[in-house]
Predict the 3D structure of the following.
Amino acid sequence: MTFSRNARISGLVLCGALALSACGTDEQKPFNASPAGDSGIACAKGSITAAGSSAQKNAMDEWVRAYQDACPGATVNYQPVGSGAGVQQFTAGSVAFAGSDSALKPEETAGADARCATGKAIDLPMVTGPVAIAYNLQGVDGLVLDAATIAKVFSGKVKTWDDPAITALNPGAKLPSAAIQAFHRSDESGTTDNVQKYLAAAAPSAWTYGAGKKFAAPGGQSAAKSDGVTSAVKSTPNAITYVEQSFAENASLGVVKIATGASAPVELTTDSAATAVQSAQVVGTGSDLSLKLDYATKNEGAYPLVLVTYEIVCAKGTPADALPLVKSFLTYTASEDGQKVLEDAGYAPLPSSIRKKVAAAVETLA
Amino acid sequence: MSLGALPPVPTDPADVRPGSGDGGPRPASLPLRTSGSGTAEPRGDRVFRGLSVSAGVALLLLIVAIALFLVVRAVPALRADTAGFLSSTGWDPNALPPRFGIVALAFGTVLSSLLALAMALPVALGVALFISHYAPRRIAGPLGYVVDLLAAVPSVVFGLWGISYLNVPLAGVSRFLAEHLGWFPLFARAADDVYTRSLFLASVVLAIMILPIIASLSREVFLQVPATNQEAALALGATRWEMVRTAVLPFARPGVIGATMLGLGRALGETIAVAIVLSPAFVVSLSVLQPNSGNTIAANIALAFAEASATGRGALIASGLVLFVITLLVNVVARAVVSRRREFTGGAL
């Protein structure tokens, strides 16, 4: 009895699944049928796998969808396994390119160069994303903090919201005397690395813990991954954390304006993040375009806490079967259209001066 | 329905010894084929023996291969370590030069698992005894299914439930314990009066995860206790509790120890649930009620692996090797205890 009923139910489920997937393919047809010329993408065929930074995941998802819609016959598979794992897979030759939250480190370059049979591995900045200092504080909008205060909050030296350091920056705000619940990432992450680099550069006397992917200061609590810290702050009154902008936005948390020394505290917007990246210097040599951000920038309207992530790729020596697709895909991501896609996904587009250099570097891949 | 699985009461008086269910004398009338009676082993037997031997050998090879893999990958990192791996508590394998030690991780792993076991074991035995000896048959069946179902819930679900539901209420319990029993080292007061995301929370989640394993296996063992033993106890005038204490528990002890060790093994190796609920720190501390009071080997691997450098991965694999050894030790000790007990009780497992 039960058996036959189970069979009937599973049959029903199967039919339902078939019907749904049938709908899915129907809907996709118009997209697949659209000629490649419309999107301005020079298509290539084949299949490549890339891996690395999970901070790039949303950007890559958008790009892969747009690219594959425009180019039937091309498959790009990006695995958000983490920057460290991505670089290692690149070095081992198992992926066509790697996404990374930081440019190749000196101890990584030898292995990565060896992988590129005839050339060198280069860093191409591709995705920049602002990092928000997000907080959950009843009745306080537009909180203003400077780098030194942020450093003290995250290292447990400023313990309450009505500490003089905070009230001085927020005249008129009703700050509670409650204890600050600071959250950081318990996993190792490029976001933590960038925040610590920023604090070390912009507030060297308050942040003496150095940088690195592991949060180095004492105090506070931690939670795993971006969504972990976001939901922790969301569910904990008087909490504060650092997290990629899109997470703070989706959870509708308050976002700190940073007092950089410019005439007014800088609010986090796509524009203010792009302004900060504009003043970044290219420190890579040749077609390597690794950037050095000016974290201590005092430029008007420049939001200094920005994460730059790279694609690590062989300047020469990408396997011939993967090369056309790598080149075509990265040409798209470095194009004006490609960068525009990012704005809706919580990233900031590359400033055009840098974007042009990246596009030129992609052009020379061989 | 599991209640129906009670072994039938043997009528042969020679069969009343505990644990002799299968080994007792067989009635001569049964047509049995013994290995000595035929000249060649029947094909079915040969095939089956081949299959089971190769399964056993494959398992051994697998264990050896895992151990070899861990050692080979760990050695380069251990060579590069500039702090003592077995004596230091910090964990900075990605730094230059790398510095890392296993002490804090191993301590946190063992402490959280033991706490979990201390919380889960009494409840699990109560559940198992209730199902096997106290509950009416109509309740016992469904309850047994529910316990088995609980054992099949993926650990990530326990982790998410732990952090989104249990975290805040348990912080209240922790605060109460710290305020009233703060003199006890485990319940030391938190410096910032914050009690969320503690090692205690991780232990409670682990306890809930291992409870169904211990309960389910213990129940099976309790059901194996020969009915004659129990009836004998009752006939001598024992109450229900006295019967459980004198006939059921001693007989089932090796099985319960085995179940406990399986539960402990799961607690030691639990990864994602701990990684989700814990605010980790590399310290050796008994004050488990506060955040940053410890870390476990498996959770640390999950949190650090993706961004680790080559040395960092080696270091994590070395920590995995330590976990492997700890688990092996636990199992060896459990085996030793079980086999020693079996001599006294005649063996239930």
In short: The interface with chain B takes residues 54, 81-85, 88, 107-108, 159, 179, 181, 186-190, 212-214, 219, 221-224, 228, 231, 235-236 of chain A (CB under 8 Å). The first strand of chain A starts at residue 46 and ends at 52. Chain A is about 40% helix and 20% strand.
